[in-house]
Amino acid sequence: MPKGDVGLNVRDGDSEGMARARDLVDRFLANRSKRTLRAYTTDLEEFARSSDQALVGAVAGLLAGGPIAARRIALEYAMDLRRQGSAPATIHRRLATLRSLVRAAQESGIILWWLEVPTEEQVSRAIDSDASSQNVRYLLPRHPGEIDRLDIQHYALRETMGANFLAPVESPQRLLDVGCGTGQWGFEACHQFPEALVVGLDLVAGKPDKPSRYHWVKANILQGLPFVYDRFDFVHQRLLVTGVPVASWPQVVAEFVRVTRPGGWVELVEPPLALEEAGPATERLLGLTTGISAALGLDTTRVVFDSLDGYLRQAGLTSVARRQLSMPIGRWGGQIGSLLVTDLRAGFTRVCEVLQARSKLSAEEAADLINRAHEEWELGRMSWTFAIAFGRKPA
Question: For the whole model, what pTM was predicted?
Answer without folding.
Answer: 0.69
